[in-house]
Amino acid sequence: MEHIEKLAPFGLFDARMPRYTSYPTAPIFSPTTDEASQPVWLGALDPQVPVSVYVHIPFCERLCWFCACRTQGTTTLNPVARYLEVVEDELKILAKTLPAGIRMGRLHWGGGTPTTRCQR
Ligand code: SF4
């Protein structure tokens, strides 16, 4: 509660905001959704509207008791480095799927980023 009082003056609780961790979000999926669905959906995005990108880092130095994110504990950056290679490959695939000229309006990093320190 003390944290809420400190953060409230910054307007963090003034509006209800969606929490997106996948695109499309889970309610959009149906029994007919398959691997061909995502490229179709992404390709149909309006190139005039900037997209928001969320990159989840599922590794944390310590696991928070309140966390509902997919994550696991780690004391080194080794799994993070391997994961980032996969993220880079995924971004290359996405770049081929998105409409030409589309721009990124927001980039949000989530997951263990704040607490993972380099201990190689
Ligand atoms: S740092 Fe973030 S992702 Fe990791 S356990 Fe805490 S709340 Fe969850």
How do the strands and helices of this protein lay out in sequence?
Elements: H1 2-7, H2 37-43, E1 51-57, E2 59-60, E3 72-73, H3 78-97, E4 104-111
Parallel strand pairs: 1-4, 2-3
The structure holds iron/sulfur cluster.
Residues 60, 63-64, 67, 69, 71, 111-112, 114-115 line the site of iron/sulfur cluster.
Descriptive overview:
This protein has 120 residues and is an alpha/beta fold. It has one domain. It has three helices and four strands, in the order ααβββαβ. The strands form two sheets. Strands 1-4 form a two-stranded parallel ribbon. A two-stranded parallel sheet has the order 2-3. The longest helix has 20 residues, at 78-97. The chain is globular and about 45 Å long. The chain starts with a helix and ends in a 9-residue tail after the last strand. The mean pLDDT is 84. It binds iron/sulfur cluster. Iron/sulfur cluster binds next to loops. Iron/sulfur cluster is lined by residues 60, 63-64, 67, 69, 71, 111-112, 114-115.
Say what oligomer this is.
Answer: single chain
Mean pLDDT: 84
Strand ordering within the main sheet: 1-4
Order of secondary-structure elements: HHEEEHE
Describe this protein with a few key phrases.
alpha/beta; binds iron/sulfur cluster; 3 helices; 120 residues; two-stranded parallel ribbon
